[in-house]
């Protein structure tokens, strides 16, 4: 969770420094705006929070991972999808700048509260399939995915804004 929180701090710092002009900047004709990138991150965290809740609740207890399925766990260090198109539910819409920080924080607090419900000793012992990609993640892997996904989009946003 430490990596996830460290990336979150960087994302929030960038958000706080954005101008209205930056907020509307778009990555080419077909690319997402900074606003849409933040909406996508919010939608993704809602999805990750739901997966965590379902894992902790035991919804996947009887599901067996296929032997050839890739499993990402607490060692996940890099975004595993490359240039994978966002699933329909994660395709963003413009988000008003004045709503972004509040929504971002609210969704993150929900995610953290879901994780606090975990009473097991090993967050790598619970696993589920990503229904959109077929990849498998442990509970710890979902948390790491949230952090590396935010870091992935943070790099994209900074590049769009010409920041290091």
How many helices? 5
Please report which band the strand proportion falls in: under 5%, 5-15%, 15-25%, 25-35%, 35-45% or over 45%: under 5%
The SSE order reads: HHHEHEEH
Rg computed from alpha carbons, rounded to a whole number of angstroms: 16 Å
Question: What does the largest sheet look like?
Answer: 3 strands, mixed
The CATH superfamily is known as: dinb family like domain
Helix content: 40-55%
- The counted number of beta strands is 3
Stated plainly, the CATH topology is called Four Helix Bundle (Hemerythrin (Met), subunit A)
| CATH domain class | Mainly Alpha
Distance between the termini: 25 Å
Low-confidence region ranges? none
What do the pLDDT scores average to? 92
Number of domains: 1
Q: Rough shape?
A: globular
Widest beta sheet: strand line-up: 1-3-2
CATH architecture: Up-down Bundle
Structural class category: mainly alpha
Describe the structure.
By secondary structure, this protein is mainly α. It has one domain (2-21, 30-161): dinb family like domain (Four Helix Bundle (Hemerythrin (Met), subunit A), Up-down Bundle). Helices cover 53% and strands 5% of the residues. The protein is built from five helices and three strands, in the order αααβαββα. The chain has helices at residues 2-17, 20-24, 34-57, 97-115, 139-161; strands at 71-72, 127-129, 136-138. It has a three-stranded mixed β-sheet. The longest helix has 24 residues, at 34-57. It is globular, with a radius of gyration of 16 Å. The mean pLDDT is 92.
